[in-house]
Amino acid sequence: MSPLSKNFVRASLIYFFIAAILGIIMVSMRSYPAQLLFVHVHLNLLGWMSMMIYGVGYHILPRFSGTPLAYPKIGTLQFYLANIGLVGLVCFRPIHPVAEIFAGLVVISVGLFIFNIWMSMIPPKPEPE
User: Fold this and answer.
1) Predicted confidence band at 124 (pLDDT cuts at 50, 70, 90)?
2) What's the pLDDT tens digit per position in 7-33?
3) Cβ(74)–Cβ(15) under 8 Å?
4) Which of 43, 44, 114, 118 is the most buried (most CB within 10 A)?
5) Do the Cβ atoms of 88 and 42 come closer than 8 Å?
6) Residues 42, 114: Cα–Cα separation, whole Å
7) Higher pLDDT, 122 or 126
8) CA-based R_g, the chain, Å
9) Chain-centre distance for alpha carbon 22
10) Model-level pTM?
């Protein structure tokens, strides 16, 4: 497994653990602030699920296509944008304009993943004889 895939899977597991702890805290409270629900949901969906999909996707999809990952450096950039975007989004949600910037980073990271995987699934052109 490449370091890129491992990094996404490791990040995913950390977010999953934090979200699980938040879930238990929320269950033990009679009521909880909407911010806590927002953080819990986004750590689960953008942290646990998306990061796991990125890690497994970067590992498996190019192999299924029989091609290498098209742009490994874009994958590394995507890793940082996805994590910075998620952490910024959950930390700064009450400051709406700042949260929008971090949400934009998350969207850009999704686009980079789509582009990188899409390009990785294009078979190489056969060599002319």
Assistant:
1) confident
2) 999 999 999 999 999 999 999 998 999
3) no
4) 43
5) no
6) 20
7) 122
8) 17
9) 19
10) 0.91
The string over 13-44, giving b where at least 16 C-beta atoms fall within 10 Å of a residue's C-beta and e elsewhere, is: eebbebbeebeeeeeeeeeeeeeeeebbebbb
Closest CA to 119 of 80, 73, 83: 73
- DSSP for 51-118? HHHHHHHHHHHHHHHTS--S-HHHHHHHHHHHHHHHHHHHHHTTSHHHHHHHHHHHHHHHHHHHHHHH
> How confident is the model over 43-98, as pLDDT tens digits?
999 999 999 999 999 999 999 988 999 999 999 999 999 999 999 999 999 999 99
**Which residue type is seen at 74?**
I
Decide: 23 and 40 in contact? Cβ < 8 Å.
yes
pLDDT at residue number 65: 87
Hey, how many other C-beta atoms are within 10 angstroms of the C-beta on 76?
13
Per DSSP, the three-state class of 42 is helix
